[in-house]
């Protein structure tokens, strides 16, 4: 196979996946299936009108922490939920469009989840670093 074949086989047309390259028995597979590339989307909080990040430490009583965490994960405003060791049982990151929505979220949504004994909310004033790990290919 020479460079003259690249225009015929060097594209990302999805319907060619599983077919064979012209004149060969070499299968065409996506770069992702070949583990040559991984596509990852990264969100910009402000682009989604999430102007307030509210980290909340949660203490649980009378119910399993993982069950409470599952309920919290079902709330649209909750971006992440972690079962943790240390001062709290659960930590969540809440995304809101403004501080005016904080009271409504805490009083009308969080307070209805059974098993929450106490909350330790704070407001992220400035994000110094927001990073995530991507699994190696």
What does this structure look like?
The radius of gyration is 23 Å and the shape is elongated. It has a four-stranded antiparallel sheet, covered by helices on one side. It is built from three helices and four strands, in the order H-E-H-E-E-H-E. It is α+β, with helices and mostly antiparallel strands and 137 residues long.
What's the layout of helices and strands?
Elements lengths: L5 H4 L42 E9 L4 H9 L4 E6 L6 E7 L3 H10 L6 E6 L16
Antiparallel strand pairs: 1-3, 1-4, 2-3
Question: Could you write a compact summary of the structure shown?
Answer:
With 137 residues, this protein is α+β, with helices and mostly antiparallel strands.
Strand content: 15-25%
Distance between the termini: 26 Å
Please bin the fraction of helical residues. 10-25%
Strand and helix order: HEHEEHE
Give me the count of strands: 4
Count of helical stretches: 3
Could you describe the largest sheet, including whether it forms a barrel? 4 strands, antiparallel
The assigned structural class equals: alpha+beta
**What spatial form do the alpha-carbon principal axes imply?**
elongated
The pLDDT mean sits at 78
Order of strands, main sheet, comes to: 2-3-1-4
Low-confidence parts: none
Which descriptors apply to this entry?
137 residues; 3 helices
């Amino acid at each position: 196979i020479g460079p003259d074949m690249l225009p015929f086989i060097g594209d990302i047309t999805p319907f060619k996946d599983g077919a064979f390259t012209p004149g060969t028995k070499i299968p065409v597979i996506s770069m992702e299936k070949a583990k040559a590339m991984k596509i990852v989307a990264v969100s910009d909080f402000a682009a989604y009108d999430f102007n307030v990040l509210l980290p909340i430490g949660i203490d649980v009583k009378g119910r399993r922490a993982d069950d409470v965490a599952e309920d919290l994960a079902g709330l649209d405003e909750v971006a992440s939920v972690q079962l943790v060791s240390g001062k709290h049982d659960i930590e969540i990151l809440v995304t809101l469009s403004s501080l005016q929505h904080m009271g409504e979220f805490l009083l009308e949504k969080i307070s209805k989840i059974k098993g929450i004994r106490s909350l330790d909310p704070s407001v992220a004033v400035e994000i110094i670093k927001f990073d995530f790990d991507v699994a190696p290919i």
